[in-house]
Amino acid sequence: MREWLQDPATRSRLRGSLYAGAIGDALGAKTEFDSIDRIREIAGPAGITGFIPAYGGIGRITDDTQMTLFTLEGLIRAHVGANSEQGTFANAFPVEQSLQLAYQRWLHTQGVSWERARGPENTSVEPDGWLITNRELFSRRAPGLTCFSELEAYGKTGVRAGIDKPVNNSKGCGGVMRAAPVALWSDDVAEVFRLGAESAALTHGHPSGYLSSGAFAVIVHELLRGKPLLDAVRVGRAELEKYQGHEEQSVALDQALALAGKGAPTPEKLETLGQGNVGETALSMSVYVALATTDPDSALLASVNHSGDSDSTGSVCGNLVGAMYGEEELQTDWLSKLELAGVIGQLADDALAEFAGNAPGDDRWYVRYPAY
Q1: Interior CA angle at 106 toward 307 and 101, to 5°?
Q2: Is 61 left (phi over 0), alpha (psi -120 to 50) or beta?
Q3: How many CB atoms sit inside 10 A of residue 142's CB?
Q4: Do residues 324 and 12 make contact, with C-beta atoms less than 8 angstroms apart?
């Protein structure tokens, strides 16, 4: 029994992490890669101070949050399969494959037919499970080209990539932006790191594209357990250094830690770390903002006011500060306007039930979360 998962504070931190990640995503959705000068033209001299209409509404999420939700669903379904009555599925059908199939379901929501998205070994007529029944997910929100193309390739070949079998040399932020839920998978930080990295390596083959995800998953794991952010970063960095090719991400984290000691964040300071469009800078910029602020609102706004990949840094930083401060510290006005807020909260609660050993375990649960 994983007792820390049954602590009410853990529920608050997990829900906070997922909610704040989605809020940050939505805050930056309209201005992705706009210059800070352009952002100030759109939003006013103070930059982004709240949701700006995007994708036809207020509080609309992007592919970052969509893929984060499918990551969590894939983990739940892998756990259901590993604990099924056979008891042998974990070896025959690894969690990485469950995540792959979850991302293929996401691909289907982006307008790719199920026959093309599902992969050659899957003969199902339609995708299953509860998450994909939420029709709001069926909306294309500027998905990353690398994620999209590599998942389409899997749909054709059924060949799963990984750290030892890289699919490309991309270090885009499409792996780290979706990795926060991996924090729940294990109490072993080495396993959390490994799976975080492997989850990103399904689509991103450069070390900075997948090691950033491993480090991020460990940092979130430590935050969910109530550790201070600086301690969590140290644990994540220690695991990071065990992997070949870690240097770029290690240096980026060191730069973030050094900059955090120089006062409150500004767009100009933040941009010295990069644009957030690649794994190592998405993580380092988010860590910097979370360290250099004292409340989630300030962190979320600072994370999207820059001339780079604003929705992705908003999402990653949001996952951090939501886990740090908990659901109760998030701005209720933002939560009330957030797209899919009910789905996000329900998925978080379902994940805690499954991983803490409190899931119903009846036919309705297995229809909701079929094994794999």
Answers
A1: 125
A2: beta
A3: 13
A4: no
Task: Classify residue 182 by burial, with Cβ atoms within 10 Å: 0-12, 13-18, 19+.
Answer: buried
- Encoded tokens for 337: 């306007």
What would the pLDDT profile of 123-157 be if each residue is shown by its tens digit? 999 999 999 999 999 999 999 999 999 999 999 99
H-state helical runs in the chain: 8-28, 36-43, 63-82, 89-92, 95-109, 114-117, 145-157, 189-201, 207-224, 229-240, 247-260, 267-271, 279-292, 296-304, 310-325, 332-337, 341-355, 363-368
The CA distance from 5 to 280, in Å, is 29
List the beta bridge partners of residue 161: none
User: pLDDT tens for residues 21-69?
Assistant: 999 999 999 999 999 999 999 999 999 999 999 999 999 999 999 999 9
Phi, psi of 367 (to 5 degrees): -75, -35
Residue 233 CB partners (closer than 8 Å, separation 6+): 219, 253, 257, 287, 291
Beta bridge partners of 105: none
Which residue type is seen at 61? I
Other C-beta atoms closer than 10 Å to the C-beta of 35 total 14
Q: List Cα–Cα distances, 288 to 16, 25, 147, 264, 271, in angstroms.
A: 19, 17, 26, 10, 11
